[in-house]
Design goal:
Elements lengths: L8 E4 L10 H9 L2 H12 L5 H10 L6 H5 L11 H10 L3 E9 H11 L3 E5 L1 E4 L2 E6 L6 H14 L7 E5 L5 H6 L2 E5 L3 H4 L4 E3 L5 H18 L1
């Protein structure tokens, strides 16, 4: 069990975890191809498709979208209920926080800045002036990269893996949750639920806090 009286690292997926939307699907709506892209996203999140190849296929459909059009998706940022409160709680506990996403830096940077995260990594879209080219920079941030970031960032701040919390929703979060000291599947796909230490179906990230606070109460009661 995690010990919140000691330093730790909490690492989060972004799309459908810290925020309520899948950014690539919403960009696709702007481009007029949301249904096509959403179907690929859904299959990728279930683990039916290679993430890197599916991402390239989806990004190709976004060619021609202008930077100004993206701003409407984050005005305001569509945070998941409880996201800001959870991050505040973790910071009060002295924990470091991080975001690693198969989504895009254009969105992740805003989320990271607003939530005052310590680490942030996401994929980079390629622009021609202010227009998307339909390409994504290499290397692709995929499932294995997420797990590697957890290990690297924990080492960088001298936190044992046993003091790491990972939260995600899709199949590409499986290695990250498996690598973490404690993994939370948040409103997640079946494949991720199978490997999680905790499954949260309530669309409120503060449910994580309530779980750990209840565990503390139970432990104290057993000690009496």
């Amino acid at each position: 069990m995690l010990d919140f009286s000691k330093p730790g690292l909490a690492i989060f997926d972004m799309d459908s975890t810290l925020i309520t939307i899948e950014c690539i699907d919403e960009i696709a709506a702007i481009a007029g191809c949301k249904n096509e892209v959403s179907l690929i996203t859904e299959r990728a999140m279930r683990g039916e498709l290679d993430f890197a190849e599916s991402l390239k296929a989806r990004v190709a459909a976004l060619c021609g979208v202008r930077r100004a059009q993206l701003e409407q998706l984050f005005d305001p940022i569509p945070f998941t209920p409880g996201a800001q409160e959870l991050l505040h709680w973790l910071h009060q506990k002295g924990w470091k926080t991080a975001l690693v996403s198969g989504g895009f830096t254009w969105f992740a940077a805003s989320v990271s800045q607003t939530l005052k995260l310590d680490f942030c990594l996401a994929n980079r879209l390629v622009w021609d002036n202010d227009v998307l080219t339909g390409e994504v920079e290499e290397p692709i941030i995929d499932a294995q990269t997420k797990a590697e970031c957890l290990v690297q960032w924990a080492r960088a701040i001298d936190v044992p893996i046993s003091q790491t919390l990972a939260v995600g929703d899709g199949a590409n979060d499986i290695p990250m949750l498996t690598a973490a000291g404690f993994g939370v599947a948040f409103c997640a796909k079946p494949a991720l639920r199978e490997v999680a230490d905790l499954v949260i179906d309530e669309p409120d990230l503060m449910a994580i806090v309530r779980y750990f606070e209840q565990q503390t109460i139970n432990t104290q009661s057993q000690a009496l």
